[in-house]
Amino acid sequence: MSEPALRVENLCKEFAVKKKGGLFKRLFGRFGNGDEDSNSDRKSFVAVNKVSFDIEKGEIFGLLGPNGAGKTTTIKMISTLLRPTSGSVNVHGVNVSVDPQRVLQMIGTVLAGERCVYWKLTGRENLEYFGALYGQRGPELKQRIDYLLDRFQLSKRADETVEKYSTGMKRRIVLARALLHNPRLLILDEPTAGLDPQAALNLRDLILELKGEGKTVLLTTHYMEEADILSDRVAIIDHGEIISLNTPEQLKRDLKQTKVVSLDVLEWKDQFGDALCAAGLVSNYTAQHDTANRRWRLTMHLADGVSVGAMMAAYLEQGNSVQSLAVNEPSLEDVFIHLTGKSLRD
Amino acid sequence: MSSVITVFPAVWAVARREFKMFFRYPSWFISLIIWPSLFPIGYIFVCKALAGPNGESLSTYASYSGTTDYISYILIGTFMWMWLNVMLWGFGQALRTEQIRGTLESNWLAPLQKWFLLLGSSVYDMLRWMMFMVIAGIEFYFIFGFRVQGSLWLMLLVVLLSIPSIYGVGMVFASLVLWAKQANTPVNVVRGVMMVFTGMTYPIAVLPQWMQAVSRYLPLTHSIEAARAVAAGSGLKAISGNVEYLLISGVILFILGFAGFGRTERIISQHGSLGHH
Question: pTM of this prediction?
Answer without folding.
Answer: 0.80
